[in-house]
Amino acid sequence: MAAALSFPCALDTATKQFHLLSSVLSGIIACRIVYKLTAFVSRLHFKGYGKLTDAQKVEWNNRGFSTFHALFVASASLYLLLLSGLFYEDSRDELVVNRTSTLSNSTLGISIGYFLSDLAMILFHFPALGGLEYVSIKSPWWMNILINFFPSLEPVYSFSNKQGNDKEKEKSS
Question: Which residues cross the membrane (predicted)?
Fold first, then answer.
């Protein structure tokens, strides 16, 4: 049964690129829908929502699509790990870290769409939506996305993390 549930990724490069782009756009559209749906449901079911300022409503709705994204990624990850057979030891000849499927690539694309939407929201509503704290917290996420597309950036990311950790150790001693 598990083998029937796996989604091997045997697509050519052009199809993979189109698939990734459509997944990213789907993620952006899903964020917009969930953002609006959060506002709609909140107005109907939470009396305090109407008393919030516009900036607080933006933050509340933003947390709605962040929560939706977290649940979506957790569900997809659990499925891929436990049910798909993608990560079974003897399921393929390639290394586990190199294994992909249509579902894992779709999840990556949708997540990139979420991160781009989140970045747009933060920049558009800056500093009202979290301010510099949001930017500093979410910067490693954006760097990870860049590393997925441009693996040559990995040494820069590793070096910057090492420098930051060294500075924190100096402050604590």
Answer: 20-46, 67-88, 108-129
Q: How many residues does the chain have?
A: 173
Q: Is the pLDDT of residue 6 over 50?
A: no
Is the dihedral angle over the CA atoms 86, 91, 95, 99 positive or is it negative?
negative
Give which of 54, 66, 72, 68 is closest to 128, Cα–Cα.
Answer: 54
CB 42 within 8 A of CB 66: no
Q: What is the pTM of this model?
A: 0.72
Residue holding tokens 């996305």? Answer: 145
151 C-beta neighbours (distance < 10 Å), count: 9
> How many CB atoms neighbour CB 59 within 10 A?
18
